Amino acid sequence: MQLHTHTWGDGDRVALLVHGIMADHRTWRRVGPALAGAGYRVIAVDLRGHGASGRGPYTPELFADDLVETLPAGADLAIGHSLGGLTLALAVDRLKPRRAVFSDPAWHLAAPEPGFGPELFAAFKTAGRERIRALNPRWEEADVDVELATLALWDEATALSLAPLAGRNLLPAAPVVPSLVQLADPSFLISPEHAALLRERGFEVRTVAGAGHTVHRDDFEGFMASLDGWI
């Protein structure tokens, strides 16, 4: 599937941005311009089932194939958040960016407890402003606005499609390209034990102190600072 994209800047270097579930390219509203200001041409996708891109079927492999179909190979930098981190990891051997950043990647989805399965996650599509604000107290109001707009376009079947991944260890065996794993504090996706294992496997791992899962919206300055040496 050819995905909808949004571009910031016209620099000589290329950066790719891949959002997480429920979001679209607008989640990068501050990151895109910041990277453009650093000399990048920044290309952000809407994954299938999100934003202005086409709909289903949904599997991690199809999400990854879409990236390869849509984005240029050999970019200077690629950043994937959450589901975007999982998707980027499945496409990185074909996209071959010079550097990759996996921001709190969905490499281990805990097995759901009774009553807390993917159906509950999908039901978040109807979340209102107050609930979003309560769950994300550090977000700017503009990010709450973006979340409401992206939820309206999001196909919640994407969440249901991830059910087979619950309880599976999806950590990459080794980095395909020099790779940074950026973690929330704490991360509900990457445990301290998994973080240590990733370091052993050759990934650099950094934690953004106090940041929630959407690090770039919870603490934009901390997000950018943690990319020191990678951008």
TrEMBL record:
InterPro entries: AB_hydrolase_1, AB_hydrolase_fold, Carboxylesterase_BioH. Keywords: Hydrolase. The keyword Cytoplasm does not apply. It comes from the Bacteria. The keyword Hydrolase applies. GO terms for molecular function: hydrolase activity. Residues 16-219 form the AB hydrolase-1 domain. This is Alpha/beta fold hydrolase.
